[in-house]
Amino acid sequence: MPLQRRQALTRSIVAGVAVLLAGTVGYMAIDGQPVLSALYMTAITVTTVGFEEVFPLSAGGRVFTILLAFAGIGVILLIAGEFGRVVLQTDLRALVGYRRELKMLGKLHDHIVVCGHGRMGRAVVEVLRDRHVPFVVVEASDARCRELDEEGIPFVHGDATAESVLRAARVDRARTFLTCLADDAHNVYAILLARQLNPQATIIARAVDEGAEERLLLAGADRAINPYRMGGMRLAFTALKPTVMDFIEASLPGTASELELAEIVVHPTSELAGKTLAGAEVRRRFGIIVVALKRGDSSTFNPGPDERIEAGDVLVALGPLQRLEQIERASQ
Q1: Max Cα-Cα span within the chain
Q2: pTM of the entire structure?
Q3: Distance from C-alpha of 18 to C-alpha of 215, rounded to nearest angstrom
């Protein structure tokens, strides 16, 4: 609720309480009534319920009752009006937001579905937002969904192991399904369901327990990653080969360096297709280094200048972000 509207509602309620207090004190002073009788008389007068007078009123009491009745009607209308505005505005905002969310989800295509917005899922979302990649989060927690809504992140509220929820996230039209749920059993079930809904999607799973990678792969994941094992390996290699790790970290998002690793898919219409690396002048024109060339299931590391680039190849390139964007445009 906006602060201004909350303050207006609070003021109207305070006004109502003030009228009740004033009426109670007035009846006690004018007709000498006890607190309970004076409060009851005030309540039936303000609410205009039409009950019989609790006690005989003096002339002053009758005049006071008339004034109190008009004041009570005004306060009740004020409170009812403020409540109505709050409810109406809340419903309209919810309705507009819901319709906007449905429209946005309906347009999703070739996107990434991220299941779970815990620590791992949040880190994934940060990278996807920075890269302006279309995605949607599937999250069951009410509190986390409120955070997603406040941050303007597209999400579907529900259990990632429910078919209706994954359909709402348009898994059938997604290019990648990424599950970061808190336990492997839920991850396995989500993978099975996602694979059924979209056999062509690339599925990447987070492994929670040691040795769970094999089970996730058997369930249908293309890749299974244990972040704790990877973190431990990174710590170990940082201790053993600090210079190498510094170079690798320079190519990761979130660093001060502009050096990055990228996958460049060569399309049939690309000007690079059919040329060798030397003939395409990749290094001179784009200022990047081709670290590897992947063709189907085989990969060639450190390809030579005579290596031919074919449509469908994936070039793993290292270089500044702007240079990588240039070669990505050339590969279209």
Answers
A1: 111
A2: 0.58
A3: 67
